[in-house]
UniProtKB/TrEMBL annotation:
InterPro entries recorded: TniQ, TnsD_C
Protein name per UniProt: Tn7 transposition protein D
Domain called TniQ: residue spans: 4-160
Matches recorded under Pfam families: TniQ, TnsD
Signal peptide range in chain numbering: none
Organism per entry: Thermoanaerobacterium thermosaccharolyticum
Domain Transposon Tn7 transposition protein TnsD C-terminal: 203-570
Length: 624
């Protein structure tokens, strides 16, 4: 049993605590230290996921307050590696770390199957080392610095360096403490491009979030569904779950860059169908390294809080209930439809929604909805239902005209005729055409078809006057029923009295880009305002960052030329590297003033996370 045990420092890895015990115990033999710690000389010194924790706790001094759970969750890499494991496997890893069966740990976490390997040497942050020396009188190994893929200190935003201490030493029983003699900052500093540097910071900060939070454990399928839902929204997958593999991989590589992916051991071969990125989405039971989960979630713009806690669904038609478009019902246009089935059109490449109301009315439309008005349009009626048919019978009995009946039912006259015949109804307008006739001044008689023709012609003329700039296709979209009647019954007149086909630039009539521009501009301004007014650490304002937050990065990057107002605003607010560094400096000044710190240039630059070589960009006036 030990007579003392070092107090673990903030974010200190357990290996480091035990190494400090060895130094203070005065033991000359590492096996003697093992005997003190675990009551055995056969235990291996492991940095990331050690076992035999129960034996360690049992050998601690009397009245020790440390428990197995505290040591594992606060001073090992267990929270990081278990974050994406299913509940039962997390429990198995935890029990293995408590007990003596450490050999199964790496297999259960999926580390063995991953191509991401442990760091060869313990890493250290030079600024942390100086602070630790001042505060504690000694250095120690920080947990977050030892995570593979973490190359930047998330606290100070400076590069990490390799120490002289191997993670897996020549003596497997040796605990080697951090010290000024083995944590030597190299003469040549590591330099990254600004883009790579920013991405490395975000990755390190997310890794630290995993270490310091105990998120609910989910099954592997949960994360696949989360990613797939966001990919559907971003256009990387169909609503049926088919992933556009090449598009996804290409965009992923473009976002991070091959240099960055190689640094974090996560390169992706665009020509290879079996790569880790596609495995994360398709393979059901295969675990992925946490770093790769962080890379994919960042690329898709999913926050860690949402990834773990908020069930994501792709809703191309928004949230229900949806309006019933049955003009014959007493709930016409009211949100009473709860039955929606979404399919994928292989022709149009768009999702198709089938909306079924309890009144029997069933209609479809293509998505996704671009505006609130889209909810009140349909592409095709699949079934009218008993309510609509009963209304038709009622109107026929009232002896209303054909066009008035059609208007009240929200359809064209031919549809009314078709369903009247189907239901075996004797209609007023048919009787009238057989017995009556009306004559003009020249003695010409008009049948009901002639009356209908005049009515629909006048309606088409009114529509053209109302929208003089629109072409035939756009007018058709406004009143599809009117166009359909004229096309079937008066096509020659329709062709002669329609706008000439434009031979210039083809306009995409599927999307009202002007309306979309106005809607997106409002959303973009809200996001920018939040980014500028946030009390947290500044985030660079770029088209990609704004698009990721809104889930429309692909739209902004590919079709910004169709959104002139949004483009002009983005051009006015997006930040250059210099602009962003200046905003970080001003943020750092405010933070230091809040804490009552003396404003010194090195403190400001450190808090802002700006490297030494950039300090000459700014004058005293800039900082003030």
């Amino acid at each position: 049993m030990m007579t003392f045990f070092p107090v673990p420092y903030e974010d200190e890895v357990l290996y480091s605590v035990l190494a400090r015990y060895h130094v203070r115990s005065g033991n000359t033999s590492y096996k003697a230290t093992m005997k003190d710690l675990f009551g055995s000389t056969s235990v291996t010194a492991v940095m990331d996921l050690p076992s035999n924790i129960q034996n360690l706790v049992n050998n601690m001094p009397l009245n020790s307050r440390y428990t197995e759970e505290y040591l594992i969750k606060s001073h090992t890499l267990f929270p990081f590696y278990s974050a994406f494991l299913p509940p039962e496997r997390t429990e198995q890893v935890f029990e293995s770390m408590i007990g003596e069966n450490g050999g199964s740990i790496y297999g259960r976490t999926g580390i063995m199957a991953s191509s991401i390997t442990l760091n060869h040497y313990f890493k250290f942050c030079p600024v942390c080392a100086k602070e630790d020396k001042l505060q504690y009188g000694e250095l120690y190994w920080h947990r977050v610095h030892q995570i593979p893929g973490v190359l930047i200190c998330p606290k100070h935003h400076v590069s990490l360096y390799d120490s002289n201490v191997p993670v897996r030493g020549y003596n497997k029983h040796e605990y080697k403490a951090a010290g000024e003699e083995n944590c030597v900052e190299p003469d040549i500093a590591v330099k990254y491009s600004d883009d790579v540097f920013e991405k490395l910071i975000r990755l390190a900060e997310d890794a630290q979030v995993l270490l310091n939070n105990d998120f609910d454990k989910r099954n592997i399928e949960w994360y696949k569904e989360q990613y797939l839902a966001k990919m559907m929204k971003m256009g990387f997958a169909t609503v049926n779950g088919k992933v556009y593999r090449k598009r996804l991989i290409k965009e992923f590589i473009n976002y991070y860059g091959e240099e960055f992916l190689d640094m974090v051991q996560s390169s992706v071969d665009v020509d290879n169908d079996s790569n880790w990125l596609m495995d994360m989405i398709r393979k059901k039971n295969k675990t992925a390294h946490p770093i790769r989960h962080l890379l994919l979630s960042q690329f898709l713009g999913i926050s860690l809080q949402d990834l773990f806690n908020k069930k994501m669904e792709y809703k191309p038609f928004g949230d229900g209930p949806w309006p019933c478009l049955n003009a014959a019902s007493d709930h016409y246009l009211k949100p009473v439809v709860y039955d929606l089935k979404v399919s994928y059109s292989t022709d149009s490449k768009y999702p198709v929604g089938t909306f079924s109301c309890t009144c029997g009315f069933v209609y479809t439309r293509s998505g996704p909805d671009e505006s609130e008005d889209a909810r009140y349009r349909f592409g095709r009626i699949k079934a009218f239902g008993t309510v609509w048919e009963e209304k038709l019978k009622e109107l026929v009995n009232q002896k209303l005209s054909l066009r008035e009946t059609a208007r009240l039912l929200g359809v064209d006259a031919n549809t009314v005729k078709k369903y009247a015949r189907k239901l075996g109804l004797t209609t007023y307008w048919e009787k009238r055409s057989e017995t009556d006739s009306e004559c003009d001044n020249d003695g010409n008689s008009y049948s009901s078809m002639n009356l209908d023709r005049n009515y629909y012609r006048e309606k088409w003329k009114e529509l053209r006057k109302q929208y003089p700039e629109m072409g035939k296709t756009q007018l058709r979209q406004i009143d599809n029923a009117l166009f359909a009647w004229l096309y079937r019954n008066d096509r020659e007149w329709l062709n002669q009295n329609s706008p000439l086909k434009k031979t210039t630039n083809i306009i995409n009539s599927r999307v009202d880009w002007d309306q979309r521009d106005n809607e997106i501009l409002i959303q973009v301004k809200e996001v920018v305002a939040k980014m500028l007014n946030s009390d947290g650490k500044p985030e660079r304002i770029t088209i990609s960052s704004i698009g990721s937050k809104l889930g429309i990065r692909g739209l902004l990057e590919k079709h910004l030329d169709k959104l002139p107002k949004t483009k002009a605003y983005l051009d006015s607010v997006k930040e250059t590297n210099h602009d962003f560094r200046l905003r970080r400096i001003r943020w750092a000044v405010k933070e230091l003033e809040k804490e009552g710190e003396v404003l010194q240039l090195w403190k400001i630059m450190r808090r802002a996370g700006i490297r030494e070589e950039y300090k000459f960009e700014f004058s005293k006036r800039d900082i003030e």
